[in-house]
Amino acid sequence: MWHINGSERTLGQNQYLYTFYEVDSPTEEEVSIVKSQKHVFFSSSESASFFKGKGCNNVSYVPLGFDDDFYVTNKKYLDDDITHFGLIGKFERRKNTAALINIWARKFGNNPKYQLTCLVNNQFIGEEKQKEAINTALGGIKLIILTYYQPYKQTKKSMN
């Protein structure tokens, strides 16, 4: 699972790629990279069609799914008048993760009607530096709730 750009650095002769491509006009470079893969699975049927239209015969659509142990808890997590935001992805400068947290904190921090869950991580900068960056981004604002998820340290059961 990766971006198209970057997947040209293959790990072997039979590389399969699952990607979340979100643009309707593949570039020549992207088409070339996709053609060099054994097979490319897209999370979007439209994206698979765009690449098929560019002559890529090694593509197909595979929708996202849920884990088979996903279940409804019937718990009420939030009151109806609370707005909950989620920030999910790799914690890094080019994605402006710290800036997004800072903007959210300045706009909604200290207001119990708004909550933020951050499911962000970057294994290359380490846990302490990441916590420091988040605290800096908060700019001293005390949030009502900020959930910070550390991958592989919590199980699905403990998250429910």
Strand order of the biggest β-sheet: 1-2-3
Spell out the helices and strands N to C.
Answer: EHEHEEHEHEH
Number of β-strand runs: 6
The radius of gyration over CA amounts to 20 Å
Binned strand content: 15-25%
Which structural category do the helix and sheet elements fall into? alpha/beta
CA distance, first residue to last residue: 26 Å
Fraction in helix:
25-40%
**Tell me about the biggest sheet?**
3 strands, parallel
- Count of DSSP-assigned helices: 5
Low-confidence stretches: 152-156
Q: Provide the residue-averaged pLDDT.
A: 82
Overall, the morphology is: elongated
Description:
With 160 residues, this protein is α/β, with parallel strands linked by helices. It is 29% helix and 19% strand. The protein has helices spanning 28-36, 45-53, 97-108, 127-138, 156-159; strands at 16-19, 39-42, 59-61, 83-90, 114-121, 146-148. The strands form 2 sheets. Strands 1-2-3 form a 3-stranded parallel beta sheet, with helices on one face. It has a 3-stranded parallel beta sheet with strand order 4-5-6, with helices on one face. Strand 1, helix 1 and strand 2 (39-42) form a beta-alpha-beta unit. The radius of gyration is 20 Å and the shape is elongated. The model is unreliable at 152-156 (pLDDT under 50).
